[in-house]
Design goal:
The chain is mainly beta. It contains no helices and 11 strands. The strands form 2 sheets. Strands 2, 4, 5, 6, 9, 10 and 11 form a 7-stranded mixed sheet that branches. It has a 4-stranded antiparallel sheet with strand order 1-3-8-7, with no helix packed on it. Strand 5 and strand 6 form a beta hairpin. The protein is globular.
C-alpha cells in the first residue's frame, strides 16, 4: 500500500503561481510512477502531468505544457507540482496518484493509489 497526501492548494489570482506537494508513505516510493490529475465541477478527472519513479521521464497534458513543472524528491518521498501563469480554467481539485514502475499512462484506471485531493481556485 502507498498512502498519498496532497497539500498546497488555495485561492490565487490569474497569473499567480502555486506549488502543490504530494507526500507518500508506505512502500518504497522510488518504485512508483506518480501523476497529478485534476477534476473541475461537472467534469471528468483528467491527467495533468506525470513523472517516472526515478524522475528521469515526465509527461504533460497540452493544456499545462510550458506552465506546470512536475518534480520529485525520493529522499523526502514527495512529488511536487509547480504551477505558473495560472488561469481560471485551472480551477479544480488536484489529486496525486501512483502506480508501480512501468508506463506513465494518462488514464484514471491505470493508477492504483490516490490522495484525497487539494482544491485550487484561480480567480480572474
Amino acid at each position: 500500500q502507498v498512502q498519498l497526501v496532497e497539500s498546497g492548494g488555495g485561492l490565487v489570482q490569474a497569473g499567480d503561481s502555486l506549488r502543490l506537494s504530494c507526500a507518500a508513505s508506505g512502500r518504497t516510493f522510488s518504485n512508483y510512477n506518480v501523476a497529478w490529475f485534476r477534476q473541475a465541477p461537472g467534469n471528468e478527472r483528467e491527467f495533468v502531468t506525470g513523472i517516472t519513479a526515478r524522475g528521469e521521464g515526465t509527461r504533460y497534458a497540452d493544456s499545462v505544457k510550458g506552465r506546470f513543472i512536475i518534480s520529485r524528491d525520493n529522499a523526502k518521498n514527495t512529488v511536487y507540482l509547480e504551477m505558473n501563469s495560472l488561469k481560471p480554467e485551472d480551477t479544480a481539485v488536484y489529486y496525486c496518484a501512483a502506480r508501480p514502475l512501468g508506463r506513465l499512462p494518462v488514464g484514471v484506471r491505470d493508477y492504483d493509489y490516490w490522495g484525497q485531493g487539494t482544491q485550487v481556485t484561480v480567480s480572474s
